[in-house]
Write a structure and sequence with these properties.
Elements lengths: L9 E3 L3 H17 L7 H23 L4 H27 L7 H8 L1 H4 L4 H14 L31 H8 L3 H16 L1 E2 L2 E2 L5 H23 L4 H27 L13 E5 H7 L3 E2 L4 H6 L6 H6 L8 H15 L5 E2 L2 H16 L7
Parallel strand pairs: 1-4, 5-6
Antiparallel strand pairs: 2-3
Length: 362
């Protein structure tokens, strides 16, 4: 289901670029005789990040007896939760984890384990973000509700002049909004931003509310048997802030940087084909850093992810060279920051640029 507005957006007709790109990727998998879904590398990672999450929670709730250990374990819990989110539900939600629908559903539902609705995330992320990447007013992932300005077509407010400084800590409130506001607001309104989506029913609705209940029990009720309410709230806040900053920053480094395109949508026509738009509105980073790639679930290679979201991320490093080569052949701009510092600096400069009043804002 699409809103009336997004249904009017038209990309240029696909050229040979997407056809050749798809053929090269299919050839890679057929030549290697491997599945596009998860393999043993993904299964090992799943066990590792889930084990990290459980261990961090147990240590924080049952073995934390002071501010220092609490800070360490809460930070570990936030990083572990981000690691789970990057890897398991993200691939599951895109049907990239397995060939089997039930397995993908279970993997996607780990978002609900973290307190965020996997059903609403599907419509917000898979439909609006992946379908209309970096299109202001449609891609809800670049809409900060006036707190920040991430695209040239978004309204300019006086406080945006300082957003390159104040937005970083505000990123930490993302999980709190998920846990208590955004999912319920979308459910009641039947909209994500300005765009309608079908409200969940049956099993999907049960998973949404069941996930919220189990999260509140684990995050607040169980810890209250062992710690004061102030300690519980404090370390929930620390873990959530670590999770929020980590998740938000990784997304911003892929899309809200100087090198990414933000096409105007006023005419309802995008002067680029969809596949080329995905490449040019997305930027990779740290492609050769195996540790970062492992932790981020391949989200440092979001060009490949946006082109082939149903392919498990463990294959992205190999696919990235193929995609880059085809882009070079067709003159499509392919951008990759060599290290995290370059990506962070580009995001900072983009925030600074968007904070300045200019003709687009006027």
């Amino acid at each position: 289901m699409k809103s009336a507005f997004t249904a009017k957006i038209r990309f240029e007709r696909s050229s040979e670029f997407k056809k050749v790109l798809s053929e090269r990727i299919e050839q890679y998998f057929s030549t290697k005789n491997i599945s596009k879904s998860a393999d043993v590398r993904m299964y090992r990672k799943t066990a590792t990040v889930l084990g990290w999450l459980v261990a961090s929670y147990v240590l924080l709730v049952f073995f934390s007896h002071g501010p220092i250990t609490g800070l360490i374990f809460a930070t570990s819990l936030g990083l572990a939760a981000a690691g789970v989110g990057f890897n398991i539900p993200h691939d599951g939600g895109h049907r990239a984890y397995s060939r089997f629908k039930l397995v993908n559903k279970l993997a996607a539902s780990t978002f609900d384990l973290l307190g965020a609705s996997s059903y609403i995330w599907h419509w917000k992320h898979n439909v609006l973000h992946h379908g209309y990447t970096n299109l202001a007013g449609i891609d809800d992932d670049i809409d900060l509700g006036g707190l920040g300005r991430l695209a040239p077509e978004q309204p300019h407010l006086w406080m945006h002049r300082f957003q390159q400084f104040y937005l970083w800590p505000l990123y930490g409130f993302l999980p709190v909004k998920w846990h208590f506001v955004d999912d319920f607001k979308a459910l009641l309104r039947g909209r994500i931003g300005k765009h309608r989506f079908p409200r969940p029913k049956g099993l999907d609705l049960g998973i949404l509310f069941g996930g919220k209940v189990q999260f509140y029990l684990l995050a607040f009720v169980v810890p209250l048997f062992f710690h004061s309410i102030w300690s519980v709230l404090l370390f929930y806040g620390i873990a959530s802030a670590v999770l929020g900053v980590t998740l938000s920053t990784v997304f911003q480094l892929a899309h809200c940087v100087e090198e990414a395109d933000f096409p105007a949508v006023k005419s309802k026509e995008i002067s680029n084909e969809w596949a080329a738009h995905q490449v040019e509105s997305t930027v990779n980073f740290c492609r050769d850093n195996r540790l970062i790639g492992w932790y981020l679930g391949g989200l440092n290679m979001q060009i490949e992810h946006h082109l082939f979201p149903k392919v498990c991320h463990v294959h992205y490093p190999a696919l990235s060279r193929i995609v880059e080569g085809v882009c070079k052949d067709f003159g499509v701009r392919y951008t990759c920051h060599r290290n995290a510092f370059a990506a962070l600096a580009s995001h900072y400069r983009w925030l600074r640029e968007m904070g300045r009043f200019n003709d687009a804002a006027a």
